[in-house]
Design a protein that fits this description.
Elements lengths: L1 H54 L2 E5 L3 E8 L2 E10 L4 E6 L2 E7 L1 E9 L5 E2 L8 E10 L8 E6 L3 E2 L8
Antiparallel strand pairs: 1-2, 2-3, 3-4, 4-5, 6-7, 6-8, 8-9, 8-10
Length: 166
């Protein structure tokens, strides 16, 4: 009888250890999947943003949550707008064909504008020659231990087709 009690106690301890390891590995795997998804989403967004801004010929709106500019296309020009909604936690891109959500789960967002000399500016869009985008996304939940945050900072993207400041 004593041997059976000792065997059951050891089995319970081993089972608890194996179960804890299983839960730990499951949470970490979920967190890694969340992080990988955020990284892919961020890279796509930054590539699209860089391509658009590099081709911009005129900047019409330059605020902390929205960037609007004109870009040449095959049939003339198109107005492109990148907008952040803190209420929805999304970053969207709007062009003549419609609005597309580029990022979801955005917890922090900022746009920094630079003039021709590389100094950060907050004045009119006419003085802007380069733009830098910074954002943080989150996926998963803190309660389940699967929360993953990912911060991205774009390079300073120069508006190459915009006329140099006089």
């Amino acid at each position: 009888m004593t041997e059976l009690l000792v065997a059951l106690s050891l089995s319970a301890i081993i089972f608890a250890a194996v179960f804890s390891a299983y839960i730990f590995l499951g949470r970490n795997l979920t967190r890694l999947v969340n992080l990988q998804g955020q990284e892919v989403q961020s890279r796509r967004t930054l590539r699209r943003f860089t391509e658009d801004v590099s081709a911009a010929i005129a900047l019409s709106t330059a605020t902390a949550t929205q960037v609007a500019f004109t870009k040449p296309i095959s049939s003339g020009t198109a107005a492109i707008t990148y907008g952040y909604s803190s209420a929805n936690g999304t970053l969207t891109r709007t062009d003549p064909s419609g609005t597309q959500t580029l990022l979801s789960g955005v917890t922090a967002f900022s746009v920094t504008y630079y003039n021709e000399t590389g100094t950060a500016v907050t004045s009119s869009p006419q003085s802007v020659k380069a733009i830098e985008l910074t954002f943080t996304t989150a996926a998963g939940s803190n309660a389940s231990g699967t929360l993953a945050s990912y911060t991205s900072v774009s390079p300073r993207v120069v508006l190459r087709n915009k006329q140099a400041l006089q």
